[in-house]
Inverse folding.
């Protein structure tokens, strides 16, 4: 897609008219239309400002000028080349249509007598020195004219460069305002069409992580139960031992195995209590969810570790409120 097609599509996507863009860029509407139609004949009087007009148009629509700059410069150069070729062809046609010189003067000279030839030769010899003076004056005058023309050309180039710099400075100064104005107009159009009626998305509440705390032989795992919490139990014994891991009286492991290490993860779907009891607690190294547990031995030399899985206070209130709301809903 060519650069002028991109600009036109961007304007129509933003639902902006040529008059809207003209108000932002301060470019005449016919210039904006000429840019979208790639009609550079409109700018044929002076092509030096075309790229600045197109850059101003890009900034007003929020289009990346650097991505289109190379194509725009190439298009302008191609148009200038075609125009120069047409001018050269026109000059050649004019030169071909001009009448050719004839040899009439030579014919007249050949018809002179010898007396006339001597008089002409004497006249040329007498007027040779004044002709040299006139020739020198002509050289001086031509030099003055050339210097004046060069100075005029340099001055015009300096004026054009100054005008181009001023246009660039003005474009840079207004770039931010144009972008903001474009966004404002687009927002205004969306409001007119009722596109801003969508409800804002509610921010998700930050997720509360599960926590594990240890106090003597009691381990507390606090969870919101957004997802079922896991209780990972790791133990190493000084001598082979059997282990009982129970929940509400139900044994969760194979108690017939004697081993010097134990590893099991229990997924809790609801709050509850786990009991972990090794047969040989002496020298045992125990961790629950990575937390080190140092159990206390009772009077019988036994160690019973209680693992309580509870629901976080905030989550419990929200669940109770939800249940209360369901109870208050009228039956259909």
């Amino acid at each position: 897609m060519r650069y002028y097609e991109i600009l036109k599509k961007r304007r129509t996507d933003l639902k902006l008219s040529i008059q809207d863009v003209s108000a932002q860029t301060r470019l005449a509407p016919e210039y904006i239309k000429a840019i979208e139609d790639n009609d550079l004949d409109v700018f044929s009087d002076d092509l030096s400002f075309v790229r600045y007009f197109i850059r101003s148009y890009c900034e007003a629509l929020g289009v990346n000028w650097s991505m289109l700059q190379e194509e725009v410069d190439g298009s302008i150069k191609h148009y200038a080349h075609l125009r120069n070729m047409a001018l050269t062809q026109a000059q050649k046609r004019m030169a071909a249509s001009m009448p050719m010189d004839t040899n009439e003067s030579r014919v007249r000279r050949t018809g002179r007598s010898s007396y006339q030839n001597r008089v002409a030769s004497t006249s040329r010899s007498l007027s040779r020195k004044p002709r040299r003076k006139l020739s020198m004056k002509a050289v001086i005058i031509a030099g003055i004219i050339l210097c004046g023309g060069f100075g005029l050309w340099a001055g015009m180039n300096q004026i054009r460069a100054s005008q181009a710099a001023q246009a660039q400075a003005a474009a840079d100064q207004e770039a931010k305002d144009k972008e903001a104005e474009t966004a404002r107009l687009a927002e205004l159009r969306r409001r007119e069409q009722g596109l801003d009626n969508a409800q804002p998305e509610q921010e998700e509440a930050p997720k509360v992580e599960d926590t594990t705390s240890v106090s003597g032989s009691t381990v507390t795992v606090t969870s919101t139960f957004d997802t079922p919490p896991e209780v990972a139990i790791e133990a190493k014994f000084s001598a082979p031992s059997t282990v009982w891991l129970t929940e509400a009286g139900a044994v969760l492991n194979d108690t017939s195995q004697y081993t010097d290490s134990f590893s099991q993860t229990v997924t809790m779907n609801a709050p509850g209590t786990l009991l972990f009891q090794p047969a040989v607690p002496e020298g045992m190294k125990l961790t629950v969810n990575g937390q080190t547990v140092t159990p206390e031995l009772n009077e019988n030399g036994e160690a019973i570790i209680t693992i309580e899985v509870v629901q976080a206070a905030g989550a419990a209130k929200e669940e109770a409120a939800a249940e209360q709301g369901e109870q208050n809903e009228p039956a259909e």
Summary: The chain has a mean pLDDT of 81. The radius of gyration is 49 Å. Strands lie at 211-215, 218-223, 230-241, 243-247, 250-251, 259-267, 272-278, 285-288, 291-293, 305-311.
